[in-house]
Amino acid sequence: MLINFSNHPYETWSEDMRRAAAKYGETVDFPFPQLEPDLSVDELRELVATLAEKIEAMRPEAVFAAGEFTLLFMMVDKLLTDGLKVICSCSKRLTTETRLPNGANEKKSVFVFERFREYEYFKINF
Fold it and tell me: Which of 28, 74, 91, 125 stands the most exposed, by the fewest C-beta atoms within 10 Å?
């Protein structure tokens, strides 16, 4: 099983992304929470511990993780430390920029899924 820990429901994924996810078995959505900006670090740690416990109880093959950076960083660290495989999507960004009549620039990006990549700890070999 692949846990989709993101704000991108499986039903919205491209066919290429779904095919790549199939190697992990069924994909189960586990929505990434909306975080308030005034959340303290201690509250964030508590949230990560609670969420990780729920995810680990599901015994996934891997966890696809994407979302707000501080929670994402702590969650990936926790899940890797606990021995789970955590992956992210690798996409090409196709961007167009248009000058609007009022002089402002409008930038549009389309993300084209290419593959998943595993999160790993940075290891320095001396």
Answer: 125
Which of the listed CATH numbers 3.90.1200, 1.25.10, 2.60.40, 3.40.50 matches domain 2-89? 3.40.50
pTM, two decimal places: 0.85
Query: How far is residue 112's CA from residue 63's CA, in Å, rounded to a whole number?
Result: 20
* SS3 label, residue 74: helix
* Tens of pLDDT, residues 75-96: 999 999 999 999 999 999 889 9
- Write down the domain spans for the chain: 2-89
The pLDDT tens digits of the residues spanning 61-70 come to: 999 999 999 9
**How many C-alpha atoms does 106 have within 13 Å on its Cβ side?**
6
